[in-house]
Each structure stands twice: as C-alpha cells, then as structure tokens.
C-alpha cells in the first residue's frame, strides 16, 4: 500500500517496546492513526522513521530549511515535555 496523500498535520499514537533477540535487544514500534484507526507495525526504529519521512516530505520542500526543533508556523522552540501546558 503506497503513501499518496501529503498533509500539513498528522496525529498518531506511538508505541515503542524492546524485545530480546538472539543478537541482543531490538526496539519495535507501532503507529496508530488517531483519525481513522489504521495501525502499522515496525520491526525496527529505522523502518518507523523511514515511514514518517515518507508521509511528511514532499518533492516541493526545500531540504534543510528551518530548525528541527522549531514548531512550524510559530517561530518558537517547543517546551520540554515536562513543561508543556
């Protein structure tokens, strides 16, 4: 199933857990789309990050523009998680 729709807003429930593998511990993850309930599982964090890049990047976007820590549209950096009101 390909990703065809790009949006300016995405909302997911992220779940992460660690499993014991024969080569050590490995992280697994899942995303649940809060709008439609669609769930996707990921065997490793790299797959999860690749998926997030696919749904958020478009060919029109200039790369490297803006800070990764900047909240889009506000020009402010996000507050640390324990200070979010």
Strand and helix layout:
Blueprint: E1 12-21, E2 24-33, E3 39-42, H1 45-56
Antiparallel strand pairs: 1-2, 2-3
Summarize this, please?
This protein has 85 residues and is an alpha+beta fold.
Walk me through the structure:
- The structure is a single chain.
- This protein has 85 residues and is an alpha+beta fold.
- It has a domain at 10-56.
- The chain has one helix spanning 45-56; strands at 12-21, 24-33, 39-42.
- A 3-stranded antiparallel beta sheet has the order 1-2-3, with helices on one face.
- The longest helix is centred in the middle third of the chain and has 12 residues, at 45-56.
- It is elongated.
- The protein starts with 11 loop residues before the first strand and ends in a 29-residue tail after the last helix.
- Residues 61-85 have low confidence and may be disordered.
- Look at the helices and sheets and give the structural class: alpha+beta
In terms of DSSP E residues, the strand content is 25-35%
Q: Between the first and last Cα atoms, what is the distance in angstroms?
A: 37 Å
Measured as a percent range, the helix fraction is 10-25%
Label this structure with key terms.
single chain, 3-stranded antiparallel β-sheet, about 15% helix, disordered C terminus
